[in-house]
Amino acid sequence: MTGLLAISLPRWAVARPSLDQAIRTFTGGANVLDGRVRLDLPPLVENGNAVGITVAAESPMTEDDHVRRIAVFNERNPEANVAVFQLGPRSGRAIVSTRIRLATSQVVVAVAEMSDGSFWSSRASAIVTLAACIEDLS
What we know:
This protein is mainly β. The protein has one domain: SoxY domain (Immunoglobulin-like, Sandwich).
């Protein structure tokens, strides 16, 4: 006779990957350079439930030189990965905009993967006065 034991850990007990680990997973461990990416994030956020961001990468968006993916990561939300956008030469411009939730004041990082395999990034900090994404840990 065999028995099955199931253990359910609270969500907060499961290790969250760090910001750097999440970026390394996206890049496959490749070196990430600063520049060629602009992350527009308001420095002061009144409500973390809907924060508008725009990410733009410098690229002519031609068949030979274009942005493949743009990823957004955060430092302190329950999940480090925010979004990944797939792009290509037909995208016309390497620019994406969306709204994200921010749990608290933190750093947000945007990373662009270029068609030559290089990775470029930009960081921005935001002070959040009304936090979002907070889970009840009791």
